Structure formats: structure tokens, C-alpha cells
Amino acid sequence: MSVLIATALSLGFVVGGSGTALAQDAPPKAPPPKAAPAKAPAKPAKPKSPPKAGDLDPVEQEAPEVRAQKGIVVLQRAGQPLGLGVVLGGDGRILSALSPLGAGNELEAKFADDTVHKVKLGHHDRIWDLALLVPQSGKWKDGLSASSADPLREDATIRAFSAALKGKPVASPVDLRSRRSLIGGDDQTLANAIELGSRVNARDIGSPLIDEKGRVVGILGRACLPIEGKPCSPVAFGVPVPVLKSFLKDVPADAVPPTPWLGVQGVAETTPVVKGVRLLSIAKNSPAAAAKLKPGEKGTGDLIVAVAGTPVTTPEELAGAIKKRAIGEKVPLTIFNKSGYRTVDVVLRAPPDASAAAAPRAALVDKPGPAAPPKKAKPKPEKAKPKAAKPKKTSGDEDEQGGPPTESDPFSEAL
Fold first, then answer.
1. Which of 138, 160, 236, 304 is the most exposed place for a label (fewest CB within 10 A)?
2. Would 408 be classed as within a structural domain?
3. Are residues 244 and 108 both part of a single domain?
4. What is the span of the domain harbouring residue 24?
5. Number of separate domains in the chain
6. Are residues 307 and 320 in contact, defined by beta-carbon separation less than 8 angstroms?
7. Is the pTM of this model over 0.70?
8. 262-298 b/e with 16+ CB inside 10 Å = b?
9. What span, in angstroms and rounded, lies between the C-alpha atoms of 96 and 75?
10. Given CA atoms 33, 36, 38, 40 in this order, what sign does their dihedral have?
């Protein structure tokens, strides 16, 4: 383009020069009109094209393993890395290996944005070395899903993640050899386990194996390789997707993230202006109390009309909207009262634990020194004994709750 413009300008210069030479005796008004077209080359078109190309480049360059990296967590205890885990897409819980977790106490998950949240062991399988961890606050949305492709096909490119000492997990190629039988936990046989041809660091156990599309084809676990005439050799292996899905279908009903708490009671109300939930009462030290929401009679109390922009017109809709959130999450509420509309941010918390609140009271009864209080305290433990028998009756109920989830469970089809 620059060559064409330079050529056009040079031609204009020649034409102009010859014109002035021939027009010494003629009126000098002819050159200006000829110079004007030379000022209208397609120069403005140059700055328009580069921004468009530049805007598209960063999106096209993001590789599947880079996107998958957002769904990987580092599991740790007191800041010390133990292993890796993968966030289940659309769910927020974490799938990992059981063996690196030890007793499963005081566990934390460090997410891709460097935030750290406490997690609890919700479900496990000793045989296949699997664990499901439940975050106690927050809900990570950039999870991964399962692949239906065969990870051992010839054209497959499989990667695992490695946890650096001071950095984020990085994907690297891993060699999958074949499917074979290994010895798992409790000396049980693992059929069709994925045999690895690559070395795996101990801190990388629990990492997902992903394909070229960034989908999960397995989880790294620990097992034992049987060798004839020799002791069984510890090895890392890949837990295949069918086993992962079977494991997730058996998750107990109580292995769910704790329910966030707003701390209000309300009733549906319709005014000439708006529909919403009028607040009848607010619990002490609740998120609603911290946000200074006000209960009251009709026409005086605050009405919650929307949660994060989603309208709510009944207490059931309000409760459902809050349950979709997570503990520690800041949620905007749209409030209406006689002064008009306003937006209030509330930080959701876990509901108060009634059993935990009762424990200090019992401890205070046992502490007084006078003789009379201990005598009064004796019948109280005796009364508590029949109450302690109740959990024994519910143990069967807990076993029943550990069955397969309902059809609406997100684990029924994919990770």
C-alpha cells in the first residue's frame, strides 16, 4: 500500500511540475485542484486493521491445558502441599486421591486465584484411592468435566499436572501404556486400571489426566504392581472415568457444602408498586442484621424484591436463591420500603450450630466449686443419656442416605 501511495504521490508531483512549467502564462488555479486528490489516499484504513487482529490473538492462543488449569487445586495442610485435586464442573466439590490426605483433618484447598478455603472429607474409597472434598466456604465455578473418548487411542495427547514448590500446577505430557490389573487398598484387585509410563511426583497424586480438549480421562492415584516372586511395588496409576462416575454416584446425601444463612423470616407481600418478601423478623448477629435490614408490619418493613438481580416474590423463592450461593459470598439484595429502592450487600455465613451453643452451657454447670451445683448437675448427664441413644437409631438411616443420588444429581452423568 505504501508503494502504491508513494507512486501516486510521485506521479502527482510530475504532473504538477509539468503543469506549472506549461502554465506560466496561464491562470495558476489549476494546480490546487490536482493536489487535493493526492491528500485523499487510503491512509485512514491503516490504523483500523491492526486493532481487530490484535483483539483476536489472545483468545485464540489459550490452550486447553491452560483453561483446565483454572479447575485444579493444591491440597494442603498448614500451608504444606499434600497433593492435587480437580473441581467438579458445575458443582464446586473437589475430586482427588485419598492416600495423600492422611487422617483427613485440617485440610485446605488453594484455588487458581490463590484463595484458600477449608475443605472436609465427604466421601472416600480406599480400594481405588479416591476422595471427595467439600469446601466449607465459597464455590469455585471453573470446574472440569469428563471425557467419553478412549485415553489409550493412538492419536491421544494426555497431560497431567505437576505442583511446583512455589507456583501453580503446570500441565506436562504423560505416557499411558495400557490397562491392567493392580492391587488397590485393602488388597483388592483393580481391574482395567490405567498403567503409566511416566514418573509421577508424590505431590502430584490426585491430579486429573486431561485429553487434548481439556477434559478429564482419569485421576492419578496410588496402587501396587504385583510382581511374581517379588514384593508388590508401589506405583502411580490412572483411575478411569467409569470408576470415577461410579464413585460419585455413591456419594452420601450429607456430603454437601454447608448451606448459607441470611437470618430472616418473611412473608409474601404485594404492594401497588412491587411484589416481594416482607421481613417479619431478623436473627441476632445474622448477615441480615449486619446489613441493617429492618423487619416490620405491612407498609413499614423492608421488602426483598431481588437477589443478585433475580426477582423473588415468596419466602420459598428467597430461600432457594440464597441456597444457590455460598458461605462467605457477597450477595446484592434489592430492597424496597416507603423510602423507595436501594441495594444492600450481604455476606452470607453458616447458620449457628445449636449443639455447639449448648456445649459451653454444660461445661459451665460442671465448673462451679460449691457442693450444691454438682449435685444438681448429676441428674442432667443422666437425662442426656437417653438422648445419646438416638444417634444409634439413626445409624441405619445414615446408611440408607448413602445410596445412589436422585436423577437430578449432577454426578449422574458427568463429573
1. 138
2. no
3. yes
4. 2-60
5. 3
6. no
7. no
8. bbbebebbeeeeeebbbbeebeeebbbeebebebeee
9. 9
10. negative
